[in-house]
Amino acid sequence: MPLGPWKKKNKSTKEQLVDxxxxxxxxxxxxxxxxxxxxxxxxxxxxxxxxxxxxxxxQLAHGSPTGRIEGFTNVxxxxxxxxxxxxISPPEILFCTLNTHKIDMDKLLGGQxxxxxxIFAHIKGIKKEVEVHKSEDALGLTITDNGAGYAFIKxxxxxxxxxxxxxxxxxxxxxxxxxxxxxxxxxxxxxxxLKDLPRDRPFTLKLVEPMKAFEMLEPRSKGAKPxxxxxxxxxxxxxxxxxxxxxxxxxxxxxxxxxxVKKVDDLLESYMGIRDTELAATMVEVGRDKxxxxxxxxxxxxxLGDFAFPDEFVxxxxxxxxxxxxxxx
Length: 329
Fold this sequence. Notes:
- By secondary structure, the protein is an alpha+beta fold.
- It is built from 6 helices and 12 strands.
- One of its GO terms (biological process) is sprouting angiogenesis.
C-alpha cells in the first residue's frame, strides 16, 4: 500500500504500547532496541514454562520491603507480579522507574529492562482536580502511558500554559478531561484531545499523582528533556517486553539503535505530543531492512495498524532511520 491516509483497524483502545516513552515511551531501559527482529506481532504470550527464567528485585517507590518477581512477558503481567508481591491491586500501579525511587522520567521503565535493573513501582496517591485556562494553542505537555491504560504527564515545557499551574506535575496520571473519563485511552489520543480543546476557554483535569514518602518531597520537576542521553540498565543484556508477542532477552543496543530510537521518539513528540520509546523501537525494527518509504509505510500499517500516522511523519521517520544507518547523527 503506498503512502496515504491509513484507516485504523478494529483493535481495543485499551491495548497499550509503552513509553517508553515509552512504556514508551520513553526511560533508562526504555529508549533502546536489541538485535532481534520483529517477533511475531499478534502472537499469544508463550506458556509460563517457555518464558525467560529471570528474577528481578522490586520495591514500592514510596517505601516497602524488597520483593522478587519473575515469569512476566509484558508490562501488564509485570504489574500483576508486582501487585501480587505487595498485596495490592494492579490498577494501583501508575508506572515504574528503574534504579531510582524518584519520579525521574529519564529512568522510566519502557519496553526494556536491564538484567540487573532494580524496579521501583509508583502507585496512586492524592487525587486532585484543577481548572486550566487555555490561553495559547499549545499547553506545553508531553504525554506518555504506562502500558496498562493510564496516560500520564512526562514533560512540562518551561514557560508554557501548564507550567503556570503549579499543582500539575510530571508523573501525574490524567484520569478525566472535562468530566470525561479517559482511562484506557491511548496516549496519542489524549494528546490530541488536549490539543483540540478550544482556546481562550477553561477546562478541567482530574489528576492522580504518584504516592510519595515524606522524605521524597522535592522541588517540582519538568521531567525528561528531549535531548537526554538515556542509557539502559546496568547489565550486559536486557529483557525486551512487547505489547504483542513474547518477551526476549537481547544484547546491548548498538549505537545505530540508540540514536535511531532517540530520533524517532523526538519525532513522536514533535508530531503527536507523545514520547513512547517502545513504539519508537518497534518502528526502527520495522524500518531497518526496508528499501523505500512505501515499503516502510506498508510494514508500519501491518505492524501498527491501530495508529494513524501523517505521511510527513512517516517520511521523516524513514529519513531518521536512514541517517542512523549512515552514522549521520
